[in-house]
Design goal:
446 residues, mainly alpha, globular
């Protein structure tokens, strides 16, 4: 009885806080003064920018750097730009789903398709999140090692920051702090300009779309890794839960779409900057410089000096930190939604401790793996991105089914062109996964 009472109080607190947030938004929307309209926009942005910049995580930074070193800019700059459109198309659907239903992604799957598919999606998500968190702590520990900080201390500091803002800030403050952290991601843009890319050579390479070495298993592996860092299962769960916890409604969908579009632009800009930096400084290099994160940093240092090396290392730390914040929250939201626990960052830890424990436990586990001596961190990074791309078709299929369920979405169901785009994305991922599988089993076919 006591447990039921606590749960009821928690739900009441969640709804009360969200009602207060919605009332504030309604007051801003009621005014036509430009200051109020600006305040409304600044209030509503957040989830889209966060999910997209967190997508340029430490694993993504290293993946783009390794890609540029191995294949240059020709094929992958257009691929990254296309990836930005794909990411927007996918994430925009989560905005509508969350705003219309006021339910998180995990809660929708469990409620609509039952425990079997609920467990299937939840296990996929949690496994992928823990694996991805490993790459975040790789980035954080390797980046901080440039400044002489031992891995155990940098991992502990990252965990402390993650836990502090999750446990002690309500959603709005958590989101604002996270956005400030995310701004550091833009530091890769001036870093790329410091490398002085040969723009004519870049344009020529893009025009020819040449693939050094041809389409082989290694190339398909890198393509999958780039897809895995552009769209990943955690992003669906994270942004939809953000929309719900923020209290957005159908009236806010347009702002949510603009928020996501701005985030997509930032994501592409930073990803292209990292690829150009790597292609300019490391293209043609062979051996471990293309595989080990610490040696990628060393190559940047040799060409751009201590300042360039430090900026790259700090960017790696920032990318790992913002993604750790997002992934931890994603796991907690999904577990809370699946099992009917209190599921809001607005709630204090003593009331909603079951909500906070899963995400933080996953982060601690990932940090512990990274501290294992002689772990193959560079190989592990690319592998994690490939795993994300393998899990993604199933996650997208659930999203597509929900967006076409008129009983849930009403007039906000997907339009035909949105379904075509979504099915095309699923098809591309399935084909690439299949091609990679064949290339491993029958390499002589490639």
């Amino acid at each position: 009885m006591a447990k039921t009472s606590i749960a009821a109080v928690s739900v009441a607190n969640e709804e009360e806080i969200r009602d207060q947030d919605r009332a504030r938004v309604a007051r801003l929307r009621a005014s036509n003064h430009w200051t109020k309209r600006l305040a409304l926009m600044l209030t509503l942005v957040g989830p889209g920018i966060l999910v997209m910049i967190a997508d340029n995580d430490a694993g993504g930074v290293v993946t783009y750097a390794q890609t540029g070193a191995m294949y240059g800019a020709g094929f992958f700059v257009p691929a990254i730009i296309l990836g930005g459109f794909i990411a927007f198309a996918v994430q925009e659907m989560t905005v509508r789903l969350g705003a219309v239903t006021h339910r998180g992604h995990a809660e929708m799957i469990w409620g609509r398709y039952g425990p079997f598919w609920g467990w299937f999606s939840l296990v996929d998500l949690v496994a992928a999140n823990v694996l991805t968190l490993i790459t975040e702590f790789i980035g954080i520990t390797v980046g901080m090692s440039v400044f002489g900080v031992a891995p155990v201390w940098s991992a502990a500091a990252a965990l402390a920051l993650d836990a502090s803002i999750l446990l002690f800030l309500r959603y709005y403050a958590w989101e604002r702090v996270s956005l400030w952290v995310a701004l550091g991601n833009l530091g890769f843009v001036p870093l790329a300009l410091m490398a002085h890319p040969r723009w004519t050579a870049v344009a020529t390479a893009i025009g020819h779309l040449a693939i050094p070495g041809g389409v082989q298993a290694a190339f398909l592996f890198v393509v999958l890794a780039n897809f895995g860092t552009t769209i990943a299962p955690w992003m669906l769960f994270f942004q939809q839960s953000c929309v719900v916890d923020k209290g957005l409604t159908v009236q806010d969908v347009r702002h949510g779409q603009w928020d996501t579009a701005i985030g997509s632009l930032f994501m592409v800009m930073v990803a292209v900057a990292i690829l150009l930096l790597s292609a300019t400084l490391m293209s043609g290099h062979s051996g471990p410089a293309n595989d080990r994160i610490s040696q990628i940093i060393a190559v940047v240092g040799r060409h751009l000096g201590t300042t360039g090396q430090d900026l790259f290392a700090l960017g790696l730390v920032e990318a790992g930190t913002i993604a750790t914040i997002a992934l931890t929250a994603s796991t907690s939201w999904a577990m809370g939604e699946a099992f009917g626990w209190p599921k809001s960052i607005n709630l204090p830890a003593k009331v909603a401790w079951r909500f906070y424990v899963p995400g933080l436990f996953g982060a601690v586990l990932a940090a512990a793996v990274v501290l294992i001596p002689h772990a193959p961190l560079g190989f592990l990074n690319l592998t994690v991105q490939v795993v994300a791309s393998i899990f993604m078709p199933a996650a997208l299929l659930f999203l597509l089914l929900l967006l076409n369920d008129r009983g849930i979405m009403g007039v906000h169901v997907n339009r035909p062109w949105q379904n075509i785009v979504a099915v095309s994305i699923i098809g591309i991922l399935v084909i690439l996964n299949g091609m990679y599988g064949v290339s491993v089993v029958v390499p002589k076919w490639f």
